[in-house]
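Subject: complex prediction, re-run

Hi both,

The earlier run crashed halfway through, so I resubmitted it with identical inputs.
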Amino acid sequence: MTKMGATRDGYGEALLHLASNPKVVVLEADLGKSTKSLHFRKAHPERTVSCGIGEQNMLLVGAGLAASGYIPFASTFAIFTERAFEQMRNGVARPNLPVHVCGSHGGTHTGTDGSSAQSIEDLAIYRTLPNVVVMHPSDTVSTRELTIQLAESKSPSYMRTARNKTPVLYEGRETDIKIGKGIKLREGSDVAIIACGVMVSQSLKAADALEAEGIHATVVDMHTLKPLDADLIDELVSTCGALVTAEDHNIIGGLGGAVAEHLVSNTFAPLERVGVNDRFGESGEADEMLEVMKISTPYIAAAAKRAMARKS
Amino acid sequence: MTSVDELKELARRCRVHIINMVHRAQAGHPGGSLSEIDLLAALYKTQLRIRPDEPTWEDRDRFILSKGHASPGMYAILAEMGFITEEDLKSYRVLGGVCQGHVDMKWCPGVDFSAGSLGMGLSFGMGSAIAGRLENSERQVYVMLGDGEIQEGSVWEAAMAAAHHELGNLNVILDRNRIQNDDFCETQMRMFDIPAKWRSFGWNVKEINGHDMNEILKGLDFLSSSNDGPSILIAHTVKGNGISYMADNPAFHGAAPNDEQYHQAMVELGEVSA
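This time it finished cleanly. Structure:
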């Protein structure tokens, strides 16, 4: 039985771990129970700032704290961070203040709340901001490790976590996890599947299915979209010669966009992008949404074959 | 102790800097710089615990010019206080200059927040005030808002939150000059009873004439002595104050004087004879 966990729980654990640093402060916008910052709040109410349902204010309270030497971690739903995009742009990214924003409940995987809650553009918009680190980890362990590493970072960040459980991949492999370094979870020479977040485990399943057909796939967990691990992509181009990206995010501007941008200016290889095809979601269970959005395992496997067929 | 006459003279010199900057750049925002400058002169000279030779001193008082376009006023007082030089003022809006179009903490010593987009400074000030409280510091945070600026909804997110957290070290000065970019506030967006709005959000409120130095000093005393929660000084000012043709004139929110107008301004400020 595969051990399961929600990445948001990894975030909550990390904040508690970081509490021994007196400079770490937690900001909430009435969703601490959901983003899992509540554990920190219970243990350290004096270093937890309730901003009410006011995300614009929250991000800049973070900026003020960061400019005074504190390390603020602010969380809300991914979708609600977006209403504070200009605050993130002008008040956090532009002065390069290390405010760490966590958007939980990202992607269509969020499920039955429906399209209003299913952020499919968060990774794209934050990726356009200079100075900002953008991450979307795949399991509780990597979310925990990456969040802990953020406390040492001098840059602002945006990290998407997910509401629903996914397989735990990195128990005992904590030292493999580093901001900006993709992780090869499986190696094969026919095609490389580069995935983030909830799509990593889907991609591993797709690789199993391909293997049964005699196709050997590499699977990479690209938990950091920015700065992108360009060296690893170049290596995959030379070892596999065909790439697939897989993300629970609009096909425009996210992981697929980031990889495509790198390829067109460097060593070219055919790329197939699996993602939300520029449409909004709807209410449905997490697994149902991956089917409706055509991003589940069979779609990744099919994309891998298309990419291989385009090899010259 | 700086006398009222000395403060008036300081503000006059700042007005000269302001007109020089916008005339040289042929761009910028003289109106809101002239309305705020008496307040800035008194605040910097009599209240702020700051070190011009150590602008990033951690325990300094913070001043956040949330109406960041009114940067000539802030650059003028920063030069008078010694954070930057008078030569630096010539870099206003010039490529590579410390005096960026809107105040920027990455470019100019003494600037605590990169502003320019309205409705952001009070939230940043709230974060700065929480930091001071966490450190048990006596330091104060001052945020200057424009009156048009409080049409931004995010100001009220911050106002509500600052009162909820009882941030007695957070102080706002509202430059109530009654004019915004396009026209008079009354035309663009009526704001009705502004003092009542802040009171109802849980703030200590005092109103003053923002060009009367005696009233300004009393107002600043009110801010520093009100520690049971956030406080706001609503300063009734005249946009473009000190230059006759700019005063109360929406055209000079964001326009520079031509050479003839520049000469007249220098005459009115006593820099040259007619």
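Chain B touches chain A through 30 residues (CB under 8 Å).

- K.
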